[in-house]
């Protein structure tokens, strides 16, 4: 049975995780678009780097969701 | 420059080695639940990464063709991460919870380490 503090903990975990990942993804994509606008011939390399960055940043909300789920089931 | 498919191929190779290691650990050591949890987590982690690679390539293709993009499948990846942990919570006598969470993050840790090694080698 989860108390209200547990619910709060899950909400904070997932909310802050999503916030951080949102800021991170925004920075990655904005810089990539800037780079492509400056050097359109480097599009492929920049896009691959962006995708890898996005994949890394995505680990954060996933782990936040997992932690929230664990907290809710304790 | 490696593309996503190459990263995924090397990722897959690592996970298969890790699964073989987990099978050995599960069979030969008393830490059965820890190795089973690690294998479960890394399988779901690999599935997550496969989904990510597939969706990002689809996204790339539809952008260059000028089509509309539906989604990047973030919800599905969240759900599969939660599914791994749900299995570990439901069957605690078979799967260790912490090790399955660690297993879930192995592809991402590998991706980071791979990038760092690549940059050290090429710059």
TrEMBL record, chain A:
The chain crosses the membrane at residues 50-72. Pfam families: ATP-synt_C. Residues 8-70 form the V-ATPase proteolipid subunit C-like domain. It is a multi-pass membrane protein. GO terms for cellular component: plasma membrane; proton-transporting ATP synthase complex; proton-transporting two-sector ATPase complex, proton-transporting domain. It comes from the Bacteria. The keyword Transmembrane helix applies. Keywords: ATP synthesis, Cell membrane, CF(0), Hydrogen ion transport, Ion transport, Lipid-binding, Membrane, Transmembrane, Transmembrane helix, Transport. One of its GO terms (molecular function) is proton-transporting ATP synthase activity, rotational mechanism. It is found in: Cell membrane; Membrane. InterPro entries: ATP_synth_csu_bac/chlpt, ATP_synth_F0_csu, ATP_synth_F0_csu_DDCD_BS, ATP_synth_F0_csu_sf, ATPase_proteolipid_c-like_dom, F/V-ATP_Csub_sf. The keyword Cell membrane applies. Its main location: membrane. The record marks 58 as: Reversibly protonated during proton transport. PROSITE patterns: ATPASE_C. Key component of the F(0) channel; it plays a direct role in translocation across the membrane. A homomeric c-ring of between 10-14 subunits forms the central stalk rotor element with the F(1) delta and epsilon subunits. F(1)F(0) ATP synthase produces ATP from ADP in the presence of a proton or sodium gradient. F-type ATPases consist of two structural domains, F(1) containing the extramembraneous catalytic core and F(0) containing the membrane proton channel, linked together by a central stalk and a peripheral stalk. During catalysis, ATP synthesis in the catalytic domain of F(1) is coupled via a rotary mechanism of the central stalk subunits to proton translocation. HAMAP family: ATP_synth_c_bact. Belongs to the ATPase C chain family. This is ATP synthase subunit c. It comes from Paenisporosarcina quisquiliarum. The gene is atpE.
Automatic annotation (TrEMBL), chain B:
It is found in: Cell membrane. Coiled coil: none annotated. It is a multi-pass membrane protein. InterPro entries: ATP_synth_I, ATP_synth_I_Bacilli. Keywords: Cell membrane, Membrane, Transmembrane, Transmembrane helix. GO terms for cellular component: plasma membrane. The chain crosses the membrane at residues 12-28, 34-53, 74-91, 97-113. Pfam families: ATP-synt_I. This is ATP synthase subunit I. It comes from Paenisporosarcina quisquiliarum.
């Amino acid at each position: 049975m989860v108390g209200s503090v547990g619910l709060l903990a899950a909400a904070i975990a997932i909310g802050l995780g999503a916030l951080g990942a949102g800021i991170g993804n925004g920075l990655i994509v904005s810089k990539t678009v800037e780079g492509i606008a400056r050097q359109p011939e480097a599009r492929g390399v920049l896009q691959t780097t962006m995708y890898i960055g996005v994949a890394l940043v995505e680990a954060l909300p996933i782990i936040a969701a997992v932690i929230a789920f664990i907290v809710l089931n304790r | 420059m490696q593309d996503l498919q190459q990263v995924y191929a090397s990722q897959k190779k690592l996970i298969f080695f890790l699964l073989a290691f987990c099978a050995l650990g599960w069979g030969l050591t008393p830490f059965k639940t820890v190795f089973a949890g690690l294998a479960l987590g890394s399988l779901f982690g690999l599935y997550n990464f496969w989904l990510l690679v597939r969706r990002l390539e689809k996204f790339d293709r539809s952008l260059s063709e000028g089509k509309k993009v539906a989604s990047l499948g973030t919800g599905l990846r969240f759900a599969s991460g939660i599914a791994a942990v749900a299995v570990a919570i439901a069957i605690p006598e078979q799967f260790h919870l912490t090790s399955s969470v660690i297993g879930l993050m192995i592809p991402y840790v590998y991706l980071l380490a791979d990038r760092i090694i690549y940059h050290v080698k090429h710059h």
